[in-house]
Design goal:
Helix content is about 30%, strand content about 25%. By secondary structure, it is α+β, with helices and mostly antiparallel strands. A seven-stranded mixed beta sheet has the order 23-22-21-24-20-25-26. Strands 17-14-13-18-19 form a five-stranded antiparallel beta sheet. Strand 6 and strand 7 form a beta hairpin. Helix 1 runs parallel beside helix 3, helix 2 runs antiparallel to helix 3 and helix 4 packs across helix 13. The two termini are about 40 Å apart. About 45% of the residues are buried.
Length: about 575
């Protein structure tokens, strides 16, 4: 394979990590890069071809290290455009970065000056077609580095307690906890079998909801049930949703619950504080007096925000399935019906984003009583981030039995629905809030040394009275130098590839400081300085007057490097 070179972090070409791939310029490669560039700035800051090489400046170099081989094959005609796009976009990007619940967080982390490092998988992705392999391992990212860094998976993180993560999977355990806290919740119970519906039917006010306790995204949920016959049909629908994939025992339960009147809201709590309130609106179309419902759905789905081939999509398409057809039938409509001009036709009962719904921001309208309720849930289950689903008539009033109730809790909510409402104020700034809060303890010092003549750098720092401002005698300091990985001067491993050793230090959460050594400026040209920003750069005296110092001083002026010492 031809060369793929990664300049990690600040480098002598760009302040962004730069991936250099040996290849000739072709229109198909440019077409694919332009497509990915259109998704989000996280992926590509800029790219260009020169002298038989492709240069990609990026915030996430790991992606392009892994994609380089496939771009080369595309340029050489060994892979078609569609094959290459399929792998890089549908497999690599979606397995590594996932969605707009992850992308804004990674982008914010980088913008705020923190490192982004794949946590578990250093190169390539786990083959998720193999049974027993967790595709989630591909999507774990360490933000920050060293002590106080955290692992994120979407907007879930290592800050969330195990009990919170276990509880949110199962609506049964969630409901038990909400009841234990004395918070308002509709009457409910689990059903062992379909015939049990006859036994409990008289105990519930109508309508009711029947749903699996362990699925997400509205799968298998039926609302507005008024008869036993409808309830039994809904039970079968929920059972079918469960049987569609391999399920654990806890995922196979089905529950019945009184349906609360009102509208559906997702409330996002971060570090014990309510940050965003978003109303979820069931999928609908608006008539123009001449198009059929089918044509109006097709037109709605052409909205680029609903293009699920883009990892940056913030809406989902409206799928035509049996529940949609049944709901149209209830309204005495079919796909061939032609709504009047400006007539609004709701095509889903459930206000689910995964089923084509939209969102509206209600952050400024929520009542203090509801705010305290959702913050109580988040704090009590020790969830750093939690999405609480509430159904109520008026979000600005207390959550009484008449006004509404809590429906469920999710510690890995699809935060994009809160960050990017279709109607109302955009809340993207909350991604910054999340990163600042989760990394408030991340103060690991990042030191880079250039020059082979310097003695042991910890000794140098002590001798120059610099130690106190960076490390104390009790601090744990990790170092990479000449293939060796050391912690507090003790050799831990050797013969490591430089980039792997550097990333190993970044994800090591025991470290108060990380030191990366480069032999000379040629080593920096080959590998980059290693960090997106640097607390202290130490350069040996004989390298001070070389041309590369001019580039380095520009980074100092931009505060990408806080301090430079020549020793």
């Amino acid at each position: 394979m031809k060369k793929v070179q990664v300049l990690q972090g600040l480098n002598l070409i760009s302040p962004y990590s730069t991936v250099i791939i040996e290849m000739n310029e072709t229109e198909e490669v440019k077409k694919l890069l332009d497509l990915i560039n259109s998704f989000h700035p996280l992926f590509i800051e800029k790219y260009y071809f020169t002298q038989g090489y492709l240069y990609i400046e990026t915030r996430i170099a790991f992606l392009w290290r892994e994609a380089g081989e496939y771009l080369q094959k595309l340029a050489e005609g060994k892979m078609t455009y569609e094959e290459c796009r399929e792998y890089i976009v549908e497999t690599l990007i979606k397995q590594r970065v996932a969605s707009m619940s992850t992308i804004p967080v990674l982008h914010s982390a980088y913008t705020l000056g923190y490192e982004i490092t794949p946590t578990i998988i250093d190169d390539g992705i786990i083959d998720t077609d193999k049974p027993g392999y967790d595709k989630g391992y591909n999507r774990h990212h360490t933000i920050g580095c060293g002590k106080g860094s955290e692992i994120i998976y979407s907007i879930s993180s290592s800050k969330d307690s195990k009990i919170a993560k276990e509880m949110q999977k199962d609506k049964w355990s969630t409901n038990l906890m909400i009841t234990r806290l004395g918070l308002p919740i509709p009457k409910w119970e689990t059903l062992d079998n379909k015939s049990q519906i006859d036994e409990v039917w008289g105990n519930y006010n109508k309508p009711v909801v029947i749903k699996p306790t362990g699925l997400t995204g509205g799968s298998g949920v039926v609302v507005g049930i008024n008869t036993v016959e409808e309830a039994k049909k809904a039970f079968e629908f929920a059972q079918k949703a469960i049987d569609g994939k391999q399920r654990e025992a806890w995922q196979r339960k089905i529950m019945i619950q009184e349906q609360v009147a009102g509208e559906d809201y997702r409330l996002l709590v971060i570090d014990g504080k309510l940050e965003i309130v978003t109303k979820r609106i069931p999928a609908f179309i608006v008539g123009d007096g001449k198009s059929t419902i089918q044509e109006l759905i097709d037109e709605t789905n052409r909205d680029p925000r609903r293009d699920i081939t883009s990892p940056a999509h913030t809406l989902k398409p409206i799928k035509i399935d049996q529940p949609l057809l049944d709901y149209l039938k209830e309204q005495k409509l079919t796909l061939e019906s032609i709504p009047k001009q400006d007539e609004k036709i709701q095509v889903r009962k459930v206000a689910s984003m995964s089923q084509g719904g939209i969102t509206e921001d209600f952050t400024d309208q929520v009542s203090d009583e509801i705010k305290y309720i959702v913050e109580s849930i988040a704090s009590s289950i020790h969830a750093f981030v939690v999405g609480v689903d509430v159904l109520c008539k008026d979000i600005s009033k207390p959550l009484t039995q008449e006004n509404g109730a809590i429906l469920e809790v999710n510690t890995m909510p699809e935060a994009y629905l809160n960050l990017f409402p279709v109607l109302g104020e955009d809340r993207l700034y909350v991604a910054d809030t999340f990163v600042k809060k989760i990394l408030k303890e991340n103060k690991t010092k990042k030191v880079v040394v250039v020059g082979s003549s310097l003695p042991d750098i910890l000794t140098v720092l002590r001798e120059k009275s610099l130690l106190g401002s960076y490390f104390t005698k009790d601090d744990v300091v990790g170092e990479y130098k000449d293939g060796y990985l050391r912690i507090n001067g003790l050799e831990i491993n050797s013969n490591l590839e430089k980039w792997k050793a550097v990333e190993a230090l970044k994800v090591n959460a025991s470290l108060d400081g990380i030191i990366i050594h480069h032999r000379d400026w040629d080593a920096v040209k080959s590998d980059g300085l290693g960090f997106n920003n640097i607390d202290m750069l130490i350069v040996s005296k004989e390298l001070e007057d070389q041309e590369e110092m001019k580039v380095i001083k520009k980074y100092r002026n931009k505060r990408d490097i806080k301090k430079i010492k020549v020793l």
